[in-house]
Design a protein that fits this description.
By secondary structure, this protein is of the alpha+beta class. 29% of the residues lie in helices and 26% in strands. The strands form 5 sheets. Strands 1-2-6-3-7-16 form a 6-stranded mixed sheet. A 4-stranded antiparallel sheet has the order 11-13-9-14. Helix 1 packs antiparallel against helix 3 and helix 3 crosses helix 8.
Length: 356
């Protein structure tokens, strides 16, 4: 689908306005206000707000299936190493730099543009959900999803270079505790250093067979934050490690919990909300995607997103590249915005045409 130049320019300006408003996950109020005002201009009488989540319900002229477009406008914290103002929305060449430009502001504004370009003479309903707290929190899509009208398919906007991912790993977070006995560091034989136990526990952790036949070839369990010790001359009695866990349909959340317990590790599951997803490759949304020309590439999505909470066959697909997310000098290129608007628009047309 061709994208009118004024539409592309307006989409880029909206993205720059969004970048200029800090919207750390859980603190998106001002960004939600901006988006709500824009959506009310574009879709009068069709906008609803739940917390900081925004929902637009666009009904066609006749009955038909409902498609959900969903992406998030919250961001992570500013990473170290930025050489530009992360909220400056600076333009250099064809690139727009700023926190959230790639993940996932580009998806948000491209979905809005595609919805605006949709011919209203279609059979069915389009839901557009702009969600908060995707990066961290529980007041985003997971909260608003039960409030939505029921939908038959969904597209979740995340940076995939507009590749199509019908599968997604689940995610959990756990605490692993390694115990010892405190004593004076000058007499270590009187106690037991928790660091030694941590080394043993890591060996047990690494002995768990996480390999499988999924697109990712394995689940992952990785220590990220490690804390222990209170004094430089005292043997620590406790080492705590946060485990970042990514699960697969074969080695899912329950499988990982059972494996940690079987290994004899002292673990506590802290977060366990996102399950792995393996959607039907012959679902209506996948059939619509396959009709787009030129054909869209298959994509292995390594992250985790709100698709975990979807109640219908779904895919992850959005502009940008994953390796630009959560890093300094994040950016999106204007040709990527143009491509995304065109592809989203073509998928919408194919989805609703197939049902008519």
């Amino acid at each position: 689908m061709s994208v009118p130049v004024p539409m592309l320019e307006e989409t880029a300006e909206l993205l720059k306005s969004l970048i200029r408003i800090p919207s750390l996950s859980g603190k998106e109020s001002d960004a939600a206000d901006l988006l709500q005002k824009k959506l009310q201009d574009y879709f009068p009488q069709a906008v609803k707000r739940s917390g900081h989540n925004l929902v637009v319900e666009i009904k066609g002229t006749t009955a038909g299936p409902t498609l959900l477009l969903c992406s998030h406008f919250d961001t992570v914290s500013v990473a170290a190493g930025w050489t530009r103002d992360p909220f400056g929305a600076s333009v250099e060449g064809d690139r727009i730099y700023g926190l959230g430009a790639n993940d996932a502001g580009a998806s948000v504004v491209s979905m809005i543009a595609a919805a605006r370009l949709l011919d209203r003479n279609f059979a069915g309903c389009l839901l557009l959900c702009l969600a908060a707290e995707e990066e961290a929190g529980n007041q985003g899509f997971v909260k608003v999803e039960p409030e939505l009208p029921r939908y038959d398919a969904a597209i979740f906007g995340e940076p995939t270079n507009m590749g199509v991912a019908p599968a997604m790993r689940g995610s959990m977070r756990a605490k692993m505790r390694s115990h010892g006995k405190s004593c004076h560091a000058s007499r270590p034989w009187e106690g037991k250093n928790a660091v030694d136990q941590f080394v043993q526990d890591m060996q047990k952790l690494r002995a768990i067979d996480l390999k499988d036949s999924s697109p990712w070839k394995q689940a992952t369990v990785e220590p990220t934050v490690i804390r222990g010790g209170e004094s430089t001359n005292q043997i620590p009695d406790l080492i705590e490690a946060t485990l970042d866990i990514r699960t697969t349909p074969e080695k899912d959340n329950d499988w990982i919990i059972a494996a940690l317990n079987k290994a004899g590790l002292d673990t506590e599951i802290i977060v366990n909300r996102r399950r792995p997803m393996l959607n039907d490759i012959n679902s209506p949304i996948m059939k619509a995607v396959r009709k787009v020309q030129p054909p869209l590439a298959d994509y292995t999505f390594n992250g985790s997103c709100d698709m975990a909470f979807a109640a219908a066959p779904s895919i992850v697909m959005g502009p940008g590249q994953s390796n630009r997310s959560h890093v300094a000098d994040e950016f999106i290129a204007l040709p990527e915005l143009q491509q995304a608007i065109g592809i989203y628009g073509a998928v919408l047309k194919a989805f609703y045409t197939a049902s008519s």
